[in-house]
Amino acid sequence: MTTTITFGNFKGGVGKTTNATLIAYTLSRMGHRTLIADLDPQGNATNMLLKTKANIDGKIATFDQSLMRSVEDNNLSKSLISIDPHLDLLASAPDFAMYPRFMEKIHDYTERVKYLQQMFDPFRNNYDYIILDTPPTVMSLFTDSALYMSDYCLIVMQTHKDSFDGARAFIDYLQDYVIDKYKAPRLDLVGILPVLMQGRAPVDKLTLENAIKKFGKENLFKNTIHYMQRIKRFPITGITDKTMYDKRVLHLYKLVTNEMLRRIKEIETNE
C-alpha cells in the first residue's frame, strides 16, 4: 500500500522543501518507488529535482503541462516527470496559485479539502511512498488538502523560536482542524525533525529542551540535521553524489529516512 507523507511547518525558511526532497530522493535510492508532489506554487522542489535530473542523466526535463492545467483536466499524470527509475516528480508552476480560486466552485470548504485526494487515487498503486511538499502558509487549501489525504505528517523544525512556534501551531492545527473538523481518515504524526542551526549554540540547546518539554522526547527524531553548506547548495545545483561532502549529507539523510520508516512501522504495529 502507498504511504503518503506531508512535510510541514507554518514558519517559512526552515528547510521543509529541502528535507522533503532529500528524503524522497533517499527513499528512491533505497529502492522504494517514490513520488514527490510539489504543491507549492513557488515550485522550489520542482526546480531542485529538475536540476537533480540533469545531474543524473544530463537531460533537461520538461512536463507536458502545468499542474494547474492538469487539475483542470482532472488528469495529474500530464505533469509527471521521471527523475530516475524509482523517483517521479509531480511538478508545480506559479499558476498553481490559482487552485484555491478554482475550487471555489465547491461551496462547502470541507469538500474542497477532500477533492485533491480523489485526483491522487490513480497514483496509489504505482508508488510505495508519496511525499507532499506544501507552502508555509497558515490555513491554506494547499496544506489542508495535503494533510487530509496523508497517512503521516513530518514536521521540520529549525532550532530557533520562530520555527518552534510554527511547529507548535502546526500540531495544534492538525488536531483542531484537519482531524477534528475535516475528519482526515488516517493522519498521524510521524515525528518532528530538528534542524540544528549552530550545533551546540545555547539557542539550539534551549529550543530542543523546549521542544522535548512541549512535544515529548519520543516525538523528536533522534537523528538530527546539522547545518551543512552542502545542504544549502543542493537547491541551487540539484542533488549531487560525487564528492566526500555529498556523501556525508546523503549518509545523514539515509539515517533520517531509516528512522522515519522505523517510526511508521512502530505506529502501524501499535494500531
Automatic annotation (TrEMBL):
Gene3D superfamilies assigned to the protein according to its UniProt record, in alphabetical order: P-loop containing nucleotide triphosphate hydrolases
Q: Kindly give the Pfam families that the UniProt entry links to this protein.
A: AAA_31 (PF13614)
Top-level taxonomic group: Bacteria
Query: What InterPro entries has UniProt attached to this entry?
Result: AAA_dom (IPR025669), DNA_Partitioning_ATPase (IPR050678), P-loop_NTPase (IPR027417)
Its signal peptide is none
**Domain AAA residues, every copy:** 3-176
Protein name, as recorded: Copy number control protein
What organism, scientifically named, is this protein from? Philodulcilactobacillus myokoensis
